[in-house]
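A note from the maintainers: we've had questions about how concatenated examples are separated. There is no special marker in the raw files; a new sequence line simply starts the next protein. For clarity in this README we add a label.
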Amino acid sequence: MSAPAPAPPHPYRWAMLAGVCFVYFSFGATTAAIAPLVGRITEELALTHTQMGSVLGAWQLAFIGAAIPCGKLIDRIGVRRGLAVGALVIALSGVLRGLATDYVSLLLAVAVFGIGGPFVSVGVPKVIGQWFTGRERGLAMGLTMVGNSFGLIGALSLTSGVGLAVTGGDWRTLLMAYGGIALLAALVWTVIGGRRAARAAEAAAGAQAGHGTGGVRALLALPSVRTVLMIAVGAFLFGHSLSNWLPEILRTGGMDAATAGYWASLPIAIGIGAALVFPRLAVPARRLAILAGLFLAQIATPLLILWGDGAVLACGLVLQGLVRGALSTIVLLVMMELREVDPQRIGTVGGMYFTAGEIGGVLGPLSLGLLRDLIGGFTAGLIGLALLAAWQLFLLARLRSALR
């Protein structure tokens, strides 16, 4: 007797995807909101550059500590409530930034974002895992990354010009407005996630749970999970290092500040297209092969940026954009779909992934800056990034063996 045909995908999945994209958009916009206002905030609050640097990194440190607990909590309360809580905490962070009066209050306001952010970063792939399969799952993951990228680009490009003009030059009101966007995203998600179809899907996902490994210790005992986490550390370290220091790398290579900013925006634009294409193509049968190609691109990228000029430099930045848009999403897909992982524990898995990744995200820019101060220039740091990518190829071969 033949097995029954699988149920067709529910059309409401696209509404759910739109909701998580809006939440991820607010995440990206709030992340980038302070950067264009650094000069004004530093001057008005009488901060040193070291203090402002610690403010900009405060949310990442809080994120590292909160990611696994938030992931476990999402597994308990469900993604409908989890994403709403995350967006509300991000909104609170935006409001508190506008109310900050000194270094400590601003530091704490930004750190609050690191508590709400994991609910979003972990909740988004969990929603995708519940509603999408096959090629559509990769496409949906890519679209959420596009939403996040538009939030980043919008905040970076519009804050210091249009945003300040609308608010009469008041940076406090502007930061609160970003909090308002996150609040609106929370309300929209609550409406979308509260519909009957969404509640039914979450209940069905819970009923199917229990056939895999779910605890943090049990997951860390699996060679495949440990290898993916090491790959995540390397991917975030590479991406955050190059993204944060690229304008300065180009400037020290002979460009003026305006030209360096223009060239540094090229990987962001390329990354949006890559996020739409590569995750959709990365079905399980060819996922590791695509990752191998991206790691080869990683090896070439810093070397082309270091020694290239003109068209060669542009090729390096295009490769960086391809890696930026696709690598992290595909690695997360690999971890989500490990056969040993209980689907109902994707929140815990996602928390582990982003904890490992953000450790690399904090260490990367710090290491590149430290090497620049100790040795002078970025040559050693860029060569180190190429060696890191080669090490990730070795980890990929190890992952292939573990999966077999």
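[label: protein 2]
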Amino acid sequence: MGEKSTRDLEEVLGRTHLSEFDQYCRDNKESMHGESSSFSTYIKNILAYKHMTQQEVFLKAEIPERYGYKLLSGEKRTKQRDIILRICYAAELSLSETQRALKKYEMPVLYAKKQRDALLMILFNERPGSIAEVNGFLRENGMDPLRTSGFQE
């Protein structure tokens, strides 16, 4: 995954002439938004790197396999950030990888000034166990567990 940071791309753009735009796009294809940087591609690449199967992740995430496959294929979309967080946690993504996955899915990243998000950030860093255990920590602290369906604020 040779993705360049936004800052690096901005530096290159500062030296790029209008006539070089096509070359810029070819040279930086991996770093540009589009199908190659979609959530689906991102997660699948991480799973391949970690030698994990999608089925394994969906089982650990406690979401229906069929639904999970449709999410990763792009056939379905969800507005529930908790579903994406479940997939990220089950796929053993780091906090920074999770933040990137949320951005790629066009969802708000975890925000340190929100109590529930702050606790989730700690949980992603410490990895105390299964989704059930994560939900236990959330409940112990008076917060909603990671949802699989239904209304989400």
